[in-house]
Amino acid sequence: MRRALRVLPAAILLLALIGMWELYVDLKGPTFSLILPPPHQVVKALYTDRSLLWHSFLVTAQEVLLGILVATVFGCLLAIAIHFSPTLRRATYPLIVASQAVPVAVFAPVLAFWLGFGILPKLVVVAVVSFFSIVVTTTAGLAAVDPDLLKLMRTFDASRVRTFRHVEMPSALPGVFTGAKIAVAVSVIGAVFAEYTGSNSGLGYVILVSEPQLLAARAVAAVVILSLFAIALFALLALAERLVLPWAYRPREESPAWR
Amino acid sequence: MVEAPPEEPRELKTADAVRVELASRTFQTKRGPVQALAGMSLRVSAREVVAVVGPSGCGKTTLLELICGLQAPDAGTVEAGPTALMPQRDLLLPWLSAIDNAGLALRARGASRLEARKAAAPWLERFGLEQFERTRPAELSGGMRQRVSFLRTLLAGKPVLALDEPFAALDAITRQEMQGWLAHVLASEPRTVVLVTHDVEEAVMLGDRVVVMSPRPGHTVAEIEIALARPRRRTDAALVELRERALAALGVDT
After folding, report:
1. How confident is the model at residue B60 (pLDDT cuts 50, 70, 90)?
2. Residues in chain B whose beta carbon is closer than 8 A to a beta carbon of chain A?
3. Is B198 within 8 Å of B192 (Cβ atoms)?
4. If residue B27 lies in a helix (H) or strand (E), which one and from where to where?
5. Residue A234 within any structural domain of the chain
6. What pTM value is reported for the model?
């Protein structure tokens, strides 16, 4: 009941926006609906094109999930390397930041040229756009370890590697999840643009071919699925974090009564 | 980044477990140099409990870091046997259970999780924490956390224990309990202890000797022998008198 009340504001706002959207398109007339379809047409497209949308969704979801996974693996490795080498940090940080400024549309064709039209270039695009946030948050997590803890480990004669293994790495894990959660939204956009450039499947491809066929409702239906996917993925990561790192997730009010 | 411990001579040529001789230490800060210690001297014999009291910011923590070999003095000498530090805050790792936190020093030296647990388990029982073996620090009370933190220091297996205001963060009642508990533990597990505190009563309750430090830059201004049998009572007239002497040495009117 409490939970239902918590989602109520979001539900009301969403319904109001959809209502305004419907009203706006109706007032603009039928020609405008070819550019921006009214919500009821989108819902209809979600139903009539469900098979196409479902199969396209599977393709894009795979690209996004694998892409984030690749980005997480390489992001963590680079963050660790940067943590151990300030020189490497100074050398790579500008490049990592610059890689975020390059529009996907520019380098996606190059990737298609190198890697073909399969899943591989899409993985690379998704990984490149997700990489940044994961590297930054993981590096921050590694650097944020209490210096007194490092001193303590020194009095225990811990080697650099063991200090990393027992103290620094565990404290950086919440940062990895934060980075992955931030990466979710950009990775979905990345996958769509990668599909724009060279593919014959995926929701991005659906959007690309629907627009010129005046099937705007289908394109928007694809966008709706992408948005829902992003929300689901974000929630899934948050849930995974709670399960894997329960110690990092403690609501403040939840302190034991016997204390 | 952790730099290697300073390689100054730390072997002991005397019977003392800790010997600090006219040690000085100055830190460079953004607002200019700050001298933490100036000509600080301290000797601790094996199995002696020395309580160091001094006003806030008098360089007590610096003194302990010198003894632990985490810093080197700018002038003077510091010699100490292998020393384990119990930091001011408990600094327990939030992702580890009580037993794994207690065994951290063993894991730091390469023991497996299982070996570390085996070594820690009997101690947790002795310290009355056996029910909380698998409990993470966030769910332990302040007193329990300090006991786990002390156990972690003890299990480092070093002859000298450097305790940095171990009970300062606790409420008054728990602090008194923990002082009694520590006295009890040290009676059955004698160690060389340097106990830094700003609580004079804690110092006279626990120490064989109380060393009073001046305000920063810190150095010894008085040494008071506490030749009282244990367990000690806070209200014991002799203890109260020694407490007054220590307070007087600190320049506190009573």
Report:
1. confident
2. 1-2, 5, 65, 68-70, 83-85, 87, 89, 91, 93-95, 104-105, 107-110, 136, 138-139, 141, 156
3. no
4. strand B16-29
5. yes
6. 0.81
